[in-house]
């Protein structure tokens, strides 16, 4: 449904005409997120400037039965922030205030449009940081992180977003405001914060977010290990994890990715003849203890066949190693105009076999796959380069991506570890959930949003779900045979 | 329906295998049914929903007693299989009727553990999950919910939901597991769980120092200010510590080098030399403390900001425990106070109201049925939440057969 002129006028009366955009050019800007293959032209873009304006806008949209999509920086990689069928984009980037910083209790309260890295910068003078660190952290917002339950390299040790959100003020799609969780560590009832985080904007809009801050480590060691096969690098990951070492981060980049990064302005000093590199970071409070931990990790890397293991000697070198990793997605733009960033998770011991299988799939479909991912979590990002103007190539990319997903599921994994389902992964949901579970998910969503106007068409393949729903209340139960 | 007729109907549905042996039947209690898998749970609950049977879910019976007025008791005793356990992936699957200690020992044999220490004695995994009971290790490893990767939930209307998975990172679909954990079985029976494991740490040391309550809280904050990441930083009341004074217990886990460095740092933050506990001595200390929480009939947990713990403890003392004679444990960085003692429903309700004025939630984790029914496990919801909770109950237990008093009696 497209928003009517009457509804648009009412919204403009709340946020001011400057902050309601319905010209084609602006709508095109908001027609995709970080995933280039999915496109949906919104009916309008509304940019409220305060939580009160958000609430009032939601009431108008509810009155006119207009679907909407809450959106942060639009860096998501699953088409989750794309409006379908002319819905309204509710852009939240103007809600960018850090409302409270409580170093004594290691808490902060922020508006949803606060950029992830800015929160960590604000906490740094207190020796604290906000631990979830997606690669897009210099652009992505905390509100978007909440919607997606975002991760990042250092979530291996520190946990993903859901482990760092204590309380939420949420505006439901009707404009009703509810308070979930508590800054006091215990919820007031069921763990509705845990339910809301990762709901991809389909339950409502988080207007205030209370997060936990984490002490900055005082000692850090960053190791770069290079391998002559992907399999050996994958086996090194399993060996480190099984040994009981909990690295702060354990990241892998394959040779394709390494060479692209080294050819870019993000050059980090990775060996360009490597089949794969591992970036292993250990941290803690005590220099000697962390050095000991790093030596243990290095021993596992060497035992697994690392050709070399190099420790960053200074902060600048460490920053360079990390810049190469975090900017790898951008550097891949050197290979082709378009990139599908895939996201799946497998058991860590399955990494070597799954990486082999991905190589085979890539060869069979004649596509280039560049792997850069959170190996310690088993969270793969097989990125496929392509040119969207080449229809044949695009089709091969789609087929390869689908096969990769199925290999990951068959290995005991799942279809997304941190990017969310959005629109991109809808087609795979039935590979990991049965119809009954999908039906229950929809039941949950309808408790928060009975009209299903909040980010419609995401997360749950609704039509299939209706068809699949097996058991209906009142059905007579037959005895077991 | 009479208990006899109900038992016959269950036998018809699930066969004799789901009924306890005659020697274990208690005519004074509602019939006990012991499903052996999620499908049997589902058939039973589906039937109960259609027939309108009121169902009490029971584990080992060591933490929450079954409510009177139930038509049947659904016991998890035969849902006690463990496996597969994957030490290399640090993941295990277990049915929820397994005893916590059995699970712990089985994992230890594989050199892995689940980083939680659940208060109580002889409890089941399901009991801990349904009540979201976390112990002192919440400080270093997060709450119990953070150790659960996925689970099988049989809803009140008999649907079998498989949520989450066996991988350590997963955002596919809504996190229905969070709904099942800590909601006292209001939405269904957790039949099986996939658990996050860790390798058994190389070094494990507990430091204990005794003193006055508020002085020890200050000491604990000093430890945190020094950047030490303790696995547990727990303040114990005299009753919980098992002797005449308050005790601060600090548990350090990690490599030998990490623990040695942290031990030196912690010691320098203490007013006097700590008692150092290792090995069996440390295990005995923590076990005795955790098991002592069941000596009294009521257990609650109260959340407060870590800087407000003195006030929170004063409030508990004012309403429940003026002589400070009860079992109290404070997980300091999490801001969570656990209290076990005896209390009337009226006193608990007064405490909850007073705590709510400070924005401190109180969860009644364990109490005799009449107290739970009167006070509710939760009860002081924030704005708009009650309607959401009611909606969830209607969605997952539409016939209202599950006896879980989340809210106070009207």
Give the SSE map.
The complex is a heterodimer of chains A (481) and B (410).
Chain A: H1 5-15, E1 20-21, H2 24-29, E2 44-46, H3 51-63, E3 68-71, E4 88-91, E5 98-102, E6 107-110, H4 116-123, E7 128-129, H5 142-148, H6 155-158, E8 165-171, E9 177-181, H7 192-196, E10 205-212, E11 214-215, E12 219-227, H8 230-242, E13 249-254, H9 255-262, E14 276-284, H10 287-303, E15 308-311, H11 315-326, H12 328-331, E16 338-341, E17 344-345, H13 351-365, E18 368-373, E19 379-380, E20 382-386, H14 391-410, H15 429-432, H16 435-448, H17 462-468
Parallel strand pairs in A: 2-4, 3-4
Antiparallel strand pairs in A: 1-2, 5-6, 6-10, 7-11, 8-9, 8-10, 12-14, 12-15, 13-14, 13-18, 16-20, 17-19, 18-20
Helix pairs in contact in A: 1-3, 8-10, 8-13, 13-14, 16-17
Chain B: H1 3-14, E1 32-33, H2 38-51, E2 55-58, E3 72-75, E4 82-86, E5 91-95, H3 100-109, E6 112-113, H4 125-131, H5 138-141, E7 148-155, E8 160-164, H6 176-180, E9 188-196, E10 198-199, E11 203-211, H7 213-225, E12 232-236, H8 238-241, E13 246-254, H9 256-269, E14 275-278, H10 279-291, E15 298-303, H11 309-320, E16 327-331, E17 336-341, H12 345-357, E18 362-366, H13 369-375, H14 385-396
Parallel strand pairs in B: 1-3, 2-3
Antiparallel strand pairs in B: 4-5, 5-9, 6-10, 7-8, 7-9, 11-13, 11-14, 12-13, 12-16, 15-17, 15-18, 16-17
Short structural description:
The complex is a heterodimer of chains A (481) and B (410). By secondary structure, chain A is of the alpha+beta class.
Largest sheet composition of chain A: 7 strands, antiparallel
CATH topology of the domain at 82-199 in chain B: Uridine Diphospho-n-acetylenolpyruvylglucosamine Reductase, domain 3
Number of strands of chain B: 18
Distance between the termini of chain B: 28 Å
Shape of chain A: globular
What is the number of domains of chain A? 4
What's the CATH first level of the largest domain in chain A?
Alpha Beta
- The quaternary state of the protein chains shown equals heterodimer
What percentage of the residues of chain B does DSSP assign to strands (E)?
15-25%
Q: What's the total helix number of chain B?
A: 14
Taking the alpha carbons of the first and last residues of chain A, their distance comes to 50 Å
